[in-house]
TrEMBL record:
Gene it is expressed from: ligD_2
Pfam families attached to this UniProt entry: LigD_Prim-Pol
Organism domain of life: Bacteria
The name this protein goes by in its record: Multifunctional non-homologous end joining protein LigD
Domain DNA ligase D polymerase per the UniProt entry, residue ranges: 34-293
Species annotation: Sporomusa termitida
Gene3D superfamilies from the UniProt entry: DNA primase, PRIM domain
Stretches of the chain forming a coiled coil according to its record: none
InterPro entries referenced in this protein's UniProt entry, alphabetically: LigD_pol_dom, MtLigD_Pol-like, NHEJ_LigD
Amino acid sequence: MPSNNKTKTMIDIGGHKLKISNLDKVFYPATGFTKGQMLDYYIRIAPVLLPHLNNRPLTVKRYPNGAQGKFFYQKECPVHHPDWVKTIPVWSGSNNRNINFCNAADLPTLVWAANLAALELHTSLSVAPAVHQPSFLVFDLDPGPPATIVDCAQVGLLLKEYFDRHKLQSFPKTSGSKGLQLYIPLNTAVSYEHTKHFARVLAGRFQGKYPGLIVANMKKSLRSGKVFIDWSQNDEHKTTVCVYSLRAKEHPTVSTPITWEEVVTLVDQKKPELLSFAADQVLQRTAKLGDLFAPVLQIKQKLPAIE
């Protein structure tokens, strides 16, 4: 990684020349974490991150002035992208045309996007060309204050018990913000209509069984002190923050895959900081543990019947 400076710097990544800039710009004022460090993180994490980006329509949240500045979502791949950046066309009924999403399938594309201040990476639940077919089911567990990620962990373990009973493997990760996310790999022919209905019914049942802990209703006014099981993420038109993506918070935290043992430990010790990981910690974890989320891309499972 070149040294930080205020001028534009030409680097060679994977045989492609890229012009990167503003490497010394501070993106996280609380820690002094710079754009150069953000690029360095994405380059170092790329071996485990790229498989989760490959062939998935990518929506980015761009923060030109850093994590505490104004941001904007970008679905359409910028018109002036390099000719080697691949795109994924997805039909948009509301626009009556295809939206060409970026396909961050390789390191040069990832670095190019990061240089555009694409701090957060949000991916579709689908893998092209099967863009109308989810490859996994996801539950986004969102705590309503004063509930915390500890409460999310309790709900996650309850959901795990359900899936264990149906002999389905499930994988937790932090959101990198305040909550927890649970992925159930499918990688079989299934529709969003099916997965969304399943998720909604199951979330409703858990709300009925644990009304003091869980809410499945979309109304934010009902979430105080409870964990909202967001079933609505299982939608063709929605995205979920990608595993290993940085988050635009006070510190450079990352959406991090974790083990179920770590979830149990969190519930036992009730220390939210146990499941908050910054960029440098995530690099250390992957060097030691590898990609805990790799099975999500491979395991084939079918959801049980639900009415």
